[in-house]
Amino acid sequence: MPNQRSAVVVGGGIGGLAAAAALAGAGTRVTVVERAEHIGDVGSGLVLYPNGVAAADAISPRLGGRVRAAGHVVQPGEVRLLMDKTGRVLAEEPIGDQSERLGAPQIPILRTDLQAALVDEAVTSGADLRLGTAVSGYASGADEVAVHLRDGTTLRADVLVAADGINSTIRRRMLDDGPPQYRGYTSVRGRTSRSGLPQQSFVANGRGVQLFVAPVGGDTLYWTCKITARPGVWPERSPQRAQLALAGLLGGWHESLVRLVRMAEDITVADIHDRDPVDRWVDGRAVLLGDAAHPMVPAMGQGANMALEDAVVLAGHLGAEPDTRAALAAYERERTDRTAKVVLASRRQGSLDQGASRTQEAERNAFIRTAGRKDAAADEVHGWRPAEPAPADLAG
115: closest CA among 53, 179, 168, 63? Predict the structure, then answer.
C-alpha cells in the first residue's frame, strides 16, 4: 500500500476549508491552520452560482445538500429585478432558468452558514483544524514541505496549500509581487430581517453606487453596497457610522431601500482590491488557492465560487497523479487561464457597475435593458463543471 499523502492547508476561510474537505474526502491526511482563535459569524452573504454549487456537490453530496438546506435555492421562474435608484425596473434577469439550462441552481447563502457547512464537512472527512495558529513561512524540499509556525514549531507534509487570502503570507514568500491594488470603490455589507421587502433578488444602480440584494432563507435579505470612493474613507468609520453614512448617501433612493440599510445588522466595511493575474501558483510542494492565487473584485460574485472550483480541481489532480509535483503543475495549468479571465472580467464589470457620471450611468442602464442581465460574462463563467474522472487503467 502506498503511504497516505499529507497536506497542510493554511487558512480557515472558504477556500481553505473547501480544500481541506475535498482533500480529506479523497483520502489525504489534512491539517488546517488558521490564525484566528475561532471561526465565527463573518456576516453578510454571498451567492453560490451554478459553477460553485457544482463544485460543492463534487466535494461531497452531503455538502451540496447542506448548502441547499441552508440557503435560498433559486426556483424555476425566479427573476432578479434590475432597477435604477428610484425602483424603476430596467430588466428582469431570468436567474431561475439556470438550474435546467446549466444543471445547478443559484443559491444565495449567509457566509457563516457556508463556512459552518465546510467546517463540518472537513472535520467529518478527517481533517484536523488548528485555530489560533499563525504561519511565518515555509521551505519546500525534494520530498516534503516544512511549514514554519510563529510559535517556533514546524509542520511537515507532502503538500502546502496556501489559502490565506489576498494578503497571503505564503504568496509573499513565493512571488514577492507587492500589495494588492485598490480598484476605486469600497463595499458596505449587511443583512436585514423583517424588512417588509419581498424575498427576491434585485440590484439597484445609482451613480457610483450599486446595491445588490438577495434572500438567504427565512425572512432575511443579505445585501452589499459598492460605493465609488477614495481608499480608506469608508473603512476608517465604525460599522455603525458607516451604516448611517450609507443611509444618508442613499437619500433620494426608493425609501424601502433606505429602510433596508437602516434596519440592517452585522455591518462589514472593506475597500475593494484585486491583483493582476499570474501564471505561477506553485513553488515545489507549495501551491496557492482561492484569494491567495487570484483575488478578484466582487462585481460578478465569483470569489467563493472560484475557490470551491480550485479545491475540486486540486483534489482531483492529487487523487489521479501519484507524483505530487506533477499533480500541482497540472492544477496550475488548468486553473490559471480560467481564473485570469474571471479576474479581468470582474474588473471590467466593476468599472461598468461603478460608473459615476451621467454618461456612464446611461451606458450601464442601456446594457442592462439590452442584455436583460447584470453581468456581461455570466453564462460563460457559470457553466463550469468538474472534469469527469479518468477511467481506471485495467491493463495492469
Answer: 63
Closest-CA residue to 106 (of 313, 342, 381): 381
Residue 257 lies inside a defined structural domain of this protein: no
Taking only the tens place, the pLDDT of each residue in 54-107 is 999 999 999 999 999 999 999 999 999 999 988 899 999 999 999 889 999 999
pLDDT at 229: 96
The secondary structure of the chain, three-state, reads CCCCCEEEEECCCHHHHHHHHHHHHCCCEEEEEECCCCCCCCCCEEEECHHHHHHHHHHCHHHHHHHHHHCCCCCCCCCEEEEECCCCEEEEECHHHHHHHHCCCCEEEEHHHHHHHHHHHHHHCCCEEEECCCEEEEEECCCCEEEEECCCCEEEECEEEECCCCCCHHHHHHHCCCCCEEEEEEEEEEEEECCCCCCCCEEEEECCEEEEEEECCCCEEEEEEEEECCCCCCCCCCHHHHHHHHHHHCCCCCHHHHHHHHCCEEEEEEEEEECCCCCCCEECCEEECHHHCCCCCHHHCCHHHHHHHHHHHHHHHHHHCCCHHHHHHHHHHHHHHHHHHHHHHHHHHHHHHCCCCHHHHHHHHHHHHHHCCCCCCHHHHHCCCCCCCCCCCCCC
As beta bridge partners, residue 30 has 7
Residue range(s) defining the domain that contains residue 371: 6-179+275-382
Q: Is residue 253 part of a domain?
A: no
Q: Which three cell numbers stand for residue 292?
A: 491567495
Classify residue 217: in a domain, yes or no.
no
Query: Could you read off the pLDDT of 299-344 as tens digits, one per residue?
Result: 999 999 999 999 999 999 999 999 999 999 999 999 999 999 999 9
* Weakest-pLDDT range from 151-155, 160-164, 176-180, 364-368: 364-368
What phi and psi, each to the nearest 5 degrees, are found at residue 94? -80, 75
* Euclidean distance between CA atoms 307 and 331, whole angstroms: 13
CATH, residue 309: 3.50.50.60
Q: What pLDDT does residue 393 have?
A: 38
Quick one: pLDDT band at residue 355, thresholds 50, 70, 90? confident
Domain for residue 256, yes or no?
A: no
Q: Which of 117, 128, 16 is nearest to 57 (CA)?
A: 117
